[in-house]
Amino acid sequence: MERIRNELTDYRGTGMSVMEISHRAPQVLELLERTQEKIRRLMGLAGDDVVLFLQGGGSLQFCMVPMNLSAAGDAVDYIDTGYWAAKAIDTARQLGRDVHVAAKNHSAIPLALNVWADARYLHICTNNTVMGTQWQDIPASPIPLVADMSSDILSRNIDVSRFALIYAHAQKTIGVAGVTVVIVPRKTQEMIQPGLPSFFDYRTHAVASSNYHTPPVFAIYVVECMLDWLEQEVGGLKAMETLNKRKAALLYETLDASTLFRCPVPLGSRSMMNVVFDAVNPKTVPIFCQQARDAGLLGLEGHRARSGFRASLYNAVTLEDVEALTRFITDFERRYG
Ligand SMILES: Cc1ncc(COP(=O)(O)O)c(C=O)c1O
Residues lining ligand 1, judged by CB closer than 6 Å? Predict the structure, then answer.
């Protein structure tokens, strides 16, 4: 945010703000190219994997994935692990896909999958933002694996070669709302269906280097700033993962030691990004919320679909932020436990 503030009225010596520059100007074309390269480098993508910057959020990808990778009536497989995975399933059904659910569990990561060999792809949500569960290991899939990484992309080192497609909106771990990153490896480009309206066809955006229509330039610029921070200040993806693990471990340890709060998510399913927890006695909820707010600890309310509490520990949350929260919980425990 400090870099953005400093560059806001003069983008790299142009005398213009990045908000004012035409999306056809060389500076923006270079921004698109550089940001793509940085994602490629950080994630270890192959040279012919396409990286796209699209709009429409994770929600538009719930449509574009079935449209591009299957035809109406085709069998597609989904793992239903929570609120957003279920929305992806609903959308595929609305588009007339024959959705098979390989496993369903909203409170823990499923242990076994029943994948349909005839399905066009298997869709997985790697981190379940609302339920606070996360796949620690990516499951083996006999069919092309598609991942919604909206709430954990670039938060940990992951073997990208396992995926036939990855999508993630930027606003949680790598930027602000307005841009969605989609990674389409070469092998998947051959699966894309003919006859799609141009806008919905990944190839349209690939051929135009994400400049088919006006791209969300400012949001992409913020992603570049975040990637620079991740690479230069954090020290790369492995260092980011180590830090994220420390943050999550500290908070889970504090909750497990508490008599007032409990985390309902079993050990092997716990998310590093979204720590959900509940009050043992509901009467403590308003007191905790008020005192947390007074202490400057904001945004701890759970998602409306789950209630309880949720601490989101995305990349930008520091270890010191998490320490402030754990100190507060420990102190609250001492006073009310
Ligand atoms: C995992 C996941 N997928 C998809 C979405 C929907 O994304 P959007 O609001 O960008 O459409 C969300 C929203 O938080 C999410 O957490």
Answer: 57-59, 84, 125, 129, 148, 150-151, 169
